[in-house]
Every structure is written in structure tokens, then in C-alpha cells.
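Subject: complex prediction, re-run

Hi both,

The earlier run crashed halfway through, so I resubmitted it with identical inputs.
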Amino acid sequence: MEPLRTGRLRLPRLLGREPPMLDLLLLALGVGFFGLMAAYAFGCEQV
Amino acid sequence: MTSLGWAQIALVLAAILAAAIPLARYIAAVAAGRVTFLAPVERAFYAAGGIDPARGMGWRGYTLAMLAANAAGFLLLYALLRLQGVLPFNPQGFDGIPPFLAFNTAISFVTNTNWQAYSGEAAMSYLSQMAGLTVQNFLSAATGMALALAFCRAFAAGGLRDLGNFWADLVRVTLYILLPLALVVGVAFVAMGMPQTFARYAEATTLEGAAQTVPLGPVAFQVAIKHLGTNGGGFFGTNSAHPFEGPSALATALQIWSHQVIPFAMALAFGHIVGDRRQGWALLAVMLAFVLGGTWIVYAAEAAGNPLHIALGVDPAAGNMEGKEVRFGQALVALFTATTTGASNGAVNAMFDSFTPLGGLVPLFLIQLGEVLPGGVGAGLYGMIVFVLLAVFVAGLMVGRTPEYLGKKVQAREIKLAMLAVLVLPAVILGFTAVSLVLPVAVASIQDQGPHGLSEMLYAYSSAAGNNGSAFGGLTADTPWMNTTLGIAMALGRFAYIVPMMAIAGSIAAKPKLAASTGTFPTHGPLFAGLLAGVILILGGLQFMPALALGPIAEHFLLFAGKTF
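This time it finished cleanly. Structure:
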């Protein structure tokens, strides 16, 4: 890995070659899952 | 099989039971808040988090707090893995983990699965190993134990409105049970030859004059919690088969002890918490019977050897040694295999892909039975109690009485919720396996043809959904499809089970506790233990039998017909 120059540090370089949108999508998938489970807990109350 | 091999197995199991009995009393004392020797540290955590440990939580509050803690763990671990390239403690200069693999790994360690689509020594910085993976090893194990303690409390008394405080349980389990045990076992592993260092990897020159890199790192203490917390994620890619992660037969025996002692102690702690120790012993007896049965089948199948190898003139005396370390031998491999898959640990000291078909069937089947034999720390106990509720329901249908367990009536609501929980595993495993066996993008991950290839895919989703984490081998898992779907399978297998299980706990807790009468079905004797084992086999086993028939069972018959894959 090339040394980072802090003055020129930019998010895409920090995270590698992958598009940052992919990170957002995967994080949304993970957090969304936990949200879904929270909703499931409310649903189980109705059983 | 040899008598010496069985003596090794008996010795390790005796050591586990001998330690589980006092540990169970201690766990029950921790659950009741009677252990306080680290009270200042405990209070510091509460003060930092603004937590009132005396404030009880209902089942929903407890579950939502658990979900919030785990969501935060997922976010932090994902960020750490992606950013490790610019963070310290990275002497090998590893880049950040790619997004799909980071997603899979973060879910994997948060759910106590520790499925690994990477080799630790070739991908993870020391910071990621310590502050990311090891921390989650503690927290995911503590989460399972906290949930199990909450579930136990539901049966302890009548008319309860709360199940305890999740944050207090999490802190107490970590401080008083997991950390002290991990410290002792970690020191023992260092004494047995496991590295514990921040130094760079060593460079060596082999006898042939070739350059070789020898990976090092803070191994010993990560391996300690990897087993104690039934996490299973190896510091090295080959897990406990690596000479630095499984340096000797004694270290292997201690690893088996470590991933069995808390799950067995939790079963006995249940008896202490509900005030009837015989109930804990009944659960333990069923768990132990399956462990012994699984060990016997693996040992017998592997010691008998591969008929095709024997036909080629290989000495049958050693059995099938493909994929196994000579220094461990067949007996410790068989015991390790049955305990690591029965306990939802997932560490391996041999490669299942190289086992005989029947030897490979056992770990697969033990996972599919629901990871309750004895299961993960905490998770095994609450999973077992869900099966207990179904067993008393079946018994109630037989004799025409409203089923009850420990003085609590088990009614339609609890059975509906129990079925929601136990159907998660077959739905996730069979659903994802079926889709992956027809999608070209997933089929490309399979290495072998025929039933063996099917076993590779079936095992991957079984391991993920069962939160086991071991790999059958032969499957290319680091692809966007496999990383994403296995991640979803792990999350569903953990949390979609926990939510209805906690709803059952809330429902049971609120019910009055009835006194036992002459018509009460005793749940501590051999009759009930047999019924419980039958329910586990039928509910867990029958759902997967068609898939198993197409995989390892078909391969077994084809092997004896002279065909291999």
C-alpha cells in the first residue's frame, strides 16, 4: 500500500478501489436488517 | 478405534464435566448479581453508559437493547476492517478488507458464527484481530449468555414483569465469567507454545535454501476466547490444525475442554436458577448423549479408513488420515469434530472435506439439529429449552393435558412462537442452498462434482445459519454472492431465532408458577430425556434428510461402489 499523504487524504483512496456507494449499500443492508428485527419484535407481540 | 483413543475421549469429557459442575454454581451466582469482586470496574461501565443495572427490562426492551448493541458492533467492526490499512498495529501493511468480505466478516463475528472467507495471517492486521475480532468474540458470547440468563429467569418465578437488565448481564458475564477464564486459558496456551507477540512475521530460510515467511501475532489469547466463547474463528486460515494454533495433543484437549465447559455449565446453571438441579442434569444428559453418539460415528468411520485407499495398498491400521494432523490422531479429531459442530464453535483441527462421507455427515447433521448439543454459550441453552417446550407440548397431546414445564403452562402462543423460531434454520439453509445450486454465479464456487459438491454448498449455509462457522472446504467463499448471502443467513440464523425466543420468555415469565401435582409430567427423568432427544431428531433431522440423502449418504454408497468425487 502506498504511504498516505494526510493533506490529500480523500475517502475513496482511504477505502481502496471500490466505489464508496458499495459501502453505503452494505451498511444500509446490515443496519436495515437490525431495524427489521426490531419490527419483528413488535410483530411477535401480536402472536 | 482403540481403547487408548476412547480413554483420551473419556478423560477430556470427564475434565469438562468436573469443571462444569462448580462453574454452573458460579454462573448462577453471577446471574443473581451475587459476584461482586470487580464491582468498581462494573460501576465504571454503568457510569460511562448511563446504565441503572437495577432497572428491569421486559422481553421487548431486553431484545431491543440487544439488537442496538449488536447493530453498533456490526458498524464498528465493518469500519475497522475497511480502514485497517491506515490504522496502527499493521506491521505487514495489509490493505483494508474489501466491502463484501468486510460485510460478511462483520456479520460473522457479531453473530458468534466466525465464518471466515479469508486467511487471517494473509489479510488481517493485528489491530483488526485484537480490537475487532477478539472484542466481538467476547461480546457475541456474552450476548448469548445474557439472553440465556434472561430466558432462565422466566421459569424461575411466577408473574414476572421483567427479565433483568441486558446491559448489566452483558457487563457481568464478560467481567466475571469470560475474561477470567480467557486469562487463565490464554496463559496456558502461551505455556504450550502458542505465540503472543506484536512482532512482524519471521523470515526464515528453509533447508533447501528457499525463503519462507512464518506468520506470528497475538495468537494465544485470541484462541482462548475463540474456544471459550464458542466463536471458532481462527487466527490462522487453517484454524486449530495450524502448528501455532494447535501445537500439541494437550493443547487440542484444552481447546475441546474450553469450547464445551461453558455450554455444559449453562445447562446445569439452568437447574440452579429455576431451583431444581435435576432439570439441568436432564438437559445435560441429552446433550452429552448426542456428543458421544457423534464422536463414535466420526471415530468409527474415519478409523475404518477409505476403501479405495485400502484397495490401493494403503495400510488400513491408521484409518483415513487425509486432511488430519498425525500429532492429534483419530480420537482427538473425532471428539474435536463432534464437539465443535455440536457446540456451534466452528473451530477445526482437521479438514471435513477429506473425511469419509459418513464422517463428514456427522458435523453437518449436528449443526442442522439446531446447535443445541450442547450448542453455543447461552445459545445452546435457550435453543434447547425451545425444544423442551415442543417436547412437553407433544407429551401433553399424548395424555390430553395442558402441557406445562416447571409449573408454567405452555399454551398456543408459546408453541406458535417456538415454531417460528425452529423453522428459521430449515427455511434459511434449504432456501439459500436450493437457490445457490441453480445459479451459475454460485455454482461456480463449488470445487467438486456430484454429491460431494452438493455437500459443500449445503454445509456452507448450514454452518452460517447455525452460527457454527466451520467450513466443509472445497468452496470458494470469497465472492460477492457467497459473502452477501452467507452474511444474511448468519444474521437470520441468529436474530430471527432470538426474537421469537425472547417473546416466549416474556410470555412464560408473566404466567403464574403452579405447584406440581400427581398429574404433572416429570421433566427430569430418562423418559422425558428420551422424548426430548426424539423431538430434536425428528424436528431437526427429518427436515434435512432429503438433502442429506442427495449429499453425504449418496456419496457413501457411491464410494463403496468404487466412485469418488
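Residues 3-203+212-278 of chain B form one domain.

- K.
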